[in-house]
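dumping this here before i forget
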Amino acid sequence: MFDLRYHVASLAAVFLALVVGILVGVGISGRGFVDDAERDRLNRKIAESEAALEVANDRSADLERRQEAAQEFVRGAYPTLVKDRLAGQRVAVLVVGSFDSTLEAVTEVVNTEAGGTLARVRAVRVPIALDEVQSRLEADPDLGGYVGEEELANLGRDLGRELIVGDDTPLWDALAPDLLEQRAFESLDEADALVVIRSVAPQQAATARLLAGLYAGTASLGKPVVGVEPARVTQSAIPVFQRHSLSTVDGIDTPIGKLALVLLLGGADSGDYGVRDTAEDGILPPIEALPEPPEGG
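structure:
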């Protein structure tokens, strides 16, 4: 998304450089090197730059007022817009790293505000204990096809599918002692959607290959899968989520971000939403009215 504030900053920098150049020119002209016509031309450039900067500042201020008004509207309408929007929906959560405040925000919006249910939450310990994971795979004859670093993407893919499908989860059961950091909400029911959170820095090597497969596996079942993060982060995970075909939401700690998540989990058009430049599809997905409850229901 294009942000006028960056445009204003750039324009201001250009204006400052121009003024410095003109001041140098005026100094030279005082010693007789610049004629009156050239001085008039430079003065016109200053006036034009001042006018352009003023217009850009006005447009930036107008955009900021519009954004604030939209956010205020969403804050006021939020409880009504999310109420029961996930009723009957089971949502799984994958955390790369440890439970944190982002998970708390997701739990609040799904379980409390939108009427859904958290089916299960799994936090993957990273970097992965590769030797221990390989040893457990080798010890189980049924899982021998996943042995070897070249199989890490396939291992991650099937872990991702198990996480959503639930019921029989042989890979998670076998690898839990070495792969899981934390877990909660242990329902065996199939999940209708998945939320992905990364609470740690980007991973490398074997861990990155396993995570790539894990993301791909969750996205392969045709259900809503949404990568989320707070408004302020040190290193954004959204580009990684996007590379693996996940929908994304930034600002999950704000009403706008929470509403975007609820809409996506409820079946809205997949895409990248929020207020940062990674939000290529806008602030929110289209908001559709909930179906009317049956008479007497």
